Amino acid sequence: MHLENLIASVESSSEWRAGKAAQFPDDKRNQQSSDALAELTRRLRKLPADNEAARAYEAVVERLVELDETERLVGYESRYVGRYGFDCPADGDPDDFLSSPTRQYLEWLSEAEQGKPRPRNASGHTPLLAKPPTRKPKMTEARSYQPPTGATARPEAVKARFEVE
User: What is the pTM of this model?
Assistant: First the structure.
């Protein structure tokens, strides 16, 4: 059931990317992604019922749904599917494709079953990624905001320049 939903999402993303490829013909990444997603859809549909990657994916998603982790699942899969074949070539291998979300979901499941609280951002929502980025901005020097010519000065202006370590 969950795999069928994922396949529908992959197919929909392939069609969306095909539309973007027609809209932006100079950006070959959209067509590359559409083709990779179409191949992935075809190969996911051919997976046998006893495929180990598919069974592992179904089991961990089912357990996370039981633990009310649906929002994180949907967000993660949306980003994961949406970038498939766009940032780098992808061959449509269903086992490789399923392994990344399955690993992520197993990590979430382990945390949930150990009773670890889910991290929350400033607005009280659960972040979609399991771990925060490892690179943090560092304030290196203070600078005054210079409003554009004719603009009114703003006291809440930017006062620091940030660099990534």
Answer: 0.68
